Amino acid sequence: MKIIGIGKNYVSDKTEIKELKTGTQTIFTKPESTLVTGNKNIVYPKVTKQLAYEVELVIKIGKKGKDIEFEDAASYISEIAVGIDYTAKDVLSASRETKGPWALAKGFDGASPISNFKPVSNFQDLNNINFDLVINGEKKQVGNTSFMIYNFNEIISFVSSFMTLEPGDLIFTGTPASGTGLNVKGDHLQASIEGELLLDFKIV
Length: 204
What we know:
single chain, Fumarylacetoacetate hydrolase, domain 2, six-stranded mixed β-sheet, four-stranded antiparallel β-sheet
C-alpha cells in the first residue's frame, strides 16, 4: 500500500487557480508506518521540535489503474477520509538547506493519522466537499475542495502516469491555504467532513 501526498494544492482565492495550474504537481510519498488509525493518540515525536499540522482529505483507491484518463479518474476512488499530514518542520528546513528529500520530515512514525473512511457514494459533488480542523476547541482550518488547484481527477491522472495505483493506496490531497501551524503536547485535534466529526485524538 502506498501513501501519496500532494503539496501546495489549495488557494484562498479561486481566481488564482488558473495561474497556478502549471501542470506540474508537487508529489511526495510516505511509508505505511506513518499511519495512525482508530483515533489513537499520537506521541510527540522525538525527532522534531516543530510538529506542523495540515488537515487534508484522503482518498482511497478502489481498483488498479495506470495512465488513468482524467474523465475516468473519479471511478477509481472508493472511499474518502480526513487526515493530518504532519511535517517535522525543523527537519524539513535542514534538508532543504542541502536540497535534500522530504522523506524524513514527512515519514516519521505517527505522521499520518486518518479517520475512518466514508463511501465515495456519500458525496454528491467531489468538487464541493467541506472539511475543517478544530484544535483545543478553536477552529484552525476550514477547507472546501472547490479551492483545490488540482482536483481529485487531476491528481489521480497525474500520479498514475508515473506509478500504477492499486486498491488500498491512499492519497492526501492537500491542505487549505491558511491556518496551518504547530502542535504541542496536550493538543486535542478534531477533524470533520461536512460537519461530521471523524478524527479525534490528542498529542501526548
